[in-house]
Amino acid sequence: MNQHTTFTLDRGRAPLLVSMPHIGTEIPDDLRADYLPRALDVEDTDWHLARLYDHLEAMGASVLRPRYSRYVIDLNRPPDDAPMYPGASNTELCPTRFFTGDPLYAAGREPSPQERQRRRDAYWRPYHDALQGELDRLKAEHGYALLWDAHSIRSAIPWLFEGVLPGLNIGTANGASADASITTAVASAASRHVNVSHIVNGRFKGGYITRHYGNPAAHVHAVQLEMCQNLYMSETAPYDYDEALAQSVQPVLGDMMRAAVQAAAKLHAR
């Protein structure tokens, strides 16, 4: 285990790295007064994913998890803060709004350009250095690496998207971040579970992590899974984990990830 002040990296034995960039829930004490009281409940967290993905140790996966909330800095946004989805509502590198579109900060307390740079150096850069370093290690050991970027979100958020999302949103940057055989394998695994809807490269095509690190020509493949929280938890406060729901969707996640791993292994068989 690599225990950093801002993240934890558990190193595995398989050519698989799972990143969970939005599961952090802490806001540093010296920043808390800048936020509106509502923000301290960090409602837009990707809740309970470490618990839901309970099969990762058995798969031999490396797992990278941050400590701090996306309200401090969004680890899945580019360092230059360019919008990920032009023409749609976007959250920023240092978000200033909830997913409802309401302001996160007290009036006049939004982070300055200097503060955004400080947070990028203190929180964003160490996570991405660790992510790149682990991908490099896995590729050196196995000849290739598979990155699975794990996310969850409320199924209906009008400020971000229209209507209700499919249950499982598979993103490969429109095919640019992973070999087509891997995307096909993941989607085929999802389709075997007819009680859970899925889509490939729909509203969520993959954020910065998927787009930046996925490079099939260099034998690094990246898949983002944005799943609806109503598949495994309550989408309203206090955002409780639902064990019965979770147990019904965990086999789906396992099948999809094993399919990705097997497709990558077949692709790079020596």
Question: Care to describe what's here?
Answer:
With 270 residues, the chain is an alpha/beta fold. It has one domain (2-267): Aminopeptidase, CATH 3.40.630.40. The chain has 6 helices and 8 strands, in the order βββααβαββαβαβα. Strands 1-2-4-3-5-8-6-7 form an 8-stranded mixed sheet, sandwiched between helices. Strand 6 (168-171), helix 4 (180-191) and strand 7 form a beta-alpha-beta unit. Helix 4 packs antiparallel against helix 6. It is globular and about 55 Å long. The mean pLDDT is 95.
Strand content: 5-15%
Q: Overall mean pLDDT score?
A: 95
CATH architecture: 3-Layer(aba) Sandwich
Helix share of residues? 25-40%
Low-confidence runs (pLDDT<50, min 5 residues)?
A: none
How many DSSP helices?
6
The CATH homologous superfamily is termed Zn-dependent exopeptidases
Report the sheet with the most strands, covering strand number, pairing sense and barrel closure. 8 strands, mixed
Task: Please trace the helix and strand order, writing H or E for each element.
Answer: EEEHHEHEEHEHEH
Q: What sort of overall outline do the alpha carbons produce when their principal axes are compared?
A: globular
Intertermini distance = 30 Å
CATH fold topology:
Aminopeptidase
Radius of gyration: 18 Å
* Major beta sheet, strand line-up: 1-2-4-3-5-8-6-7
The count of strands amounts to: 8
CATH class, anyone? Alpha Beta
Supply the helix-strand structural class.
alpha/beta
Question: Helices, strands, pairings?
Answer:
Layout: E1 2-3, E2 7-10, E3 16-19, H1 49-52, H2 56-59, E4 62-66, H3 113-142, E5 145-153, E6 168-171, H4 180-191, E7 198-200, H5 208-213, E8 220-228, H6 243-267
Parallel strand pairs: 3-4, 3-5, 5-8, 6-7
Antiparallel strand pairs: 1-2, 2-4, 6-8
Helix pairs in contact: 4-6
